[in-house]
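Lab notes, practical 5.
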Amino acid sequence: MSTPNPLTPIEQAALPSAVAVLQAVQAFITNMGTDPAQWALKFPGALVTLQGAVMLQAPLLANAEGAAVSAAASSTVSGWITKLQAAEKPAA
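Output from the prediction step:
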């Protein structure tokens, strides 16, 4: 039995970017390594890699969210139009 998805379309559009950011954080942790003596040396490079991966998500997220918001707004306005058109018809 499947459970319904509780996410809205706008939240659903953000999922790929959220996954990519979490993968970038995971890569940062891996790049830092397990030796605390090396962390000061590895931090600058690992941070640049993390920042680059996160910044690359901004345009993708903006496009996905923009499309989802536009679709939601269009659907809402269409619903309003339908209600108003039904209300303006005289009763027979």
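Observations recorded by the TA: The chain has two helices and no strands. Helices lie at 9-32, 36-88.
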